[in-house]
Every structure is written in structure tokens, then in C-alpha cells.
Amino acid sequence: MRTIAAIVVLTLVAIGAGALAGLQLFAAAERVADAKKAATPPPVASSYAGSARLRKLSPIVTNLGAPANNWARVEASMVTESMSDEDAGILAAHVSEDIVTYLRSASVTQFEGSRGLQHLRDDLTERANIRSSGKIRELIIETLVIQ
Fold it and tell me: The pTM is what?
């Protein structure tokens, strides 16, 4: 009978100690969560200067060089230095022409996989940079659909 009473007392002590530890852990977790909410995230460093602007190009639809029955639709944007809207519009038209010319000479196999997409992006960025005499920093391909 004494052993049963001792087991019951030890069980009650263990339940009390567990409940106390759980409440303390819960309070500590709340303090950490509140501290994370109050902390402001560090500012994201941009690789572009304050004068850079993102300009969206009109969607481009053209047929590919090989096979000729495949079509490509490209939506892209260009990151430019600060320039007037008129100059940017003219430059965007020239870059769109260059993209059409490039796609009409390309085949579907050139765009397969992640490497193909990266090569396309690099080639188009290089062409845009040459066309703009360095005013375009990057050409960003937003969507590419080949049908």
C-alpha cells in the first residue's frame, strides 16, 4: 500500500514538473516569436544603381528557324540606365527586332534545358548591350513559350 501511495505521489510530482516546464517553454517561444516580428529585415542590396529602370518590352511572337512550323513567344524586360521615355521606346523597338532576328535563325534544340535557356538569355543580353552601346545592363526573359 505504501508503494502504491509513493507511485501516485511521484506521478503527481512528475505531472506538475512537466506542466511547469511546458509553460516556461511556451513563454520562451512566444518571446522569440515576438522578437522576430519586431525585428526589421535587412535591406536587400541591389546590383543596380539608383538610376536603373526596368522597361517591359512588347510580347514577341515569331517562327523559329528550324523546324519552320514551330513558333516562339517571348515576354521580356530590359534594365536600362536613366533615359527619356522616347529614347527608351526606340531602343526597345530595336531590341525587339534583334530578338526576332535571333529567334528566326535558331532551332528548338538550342533552347532545351536550363543551359539552353541560360545561353539564350546571355546571347540576347549581349546583343541588346551591343545595340544600345552599353545602355542596357540586362535583358530579363519573363516567359518563353515554344509551340
Answer: 0.66
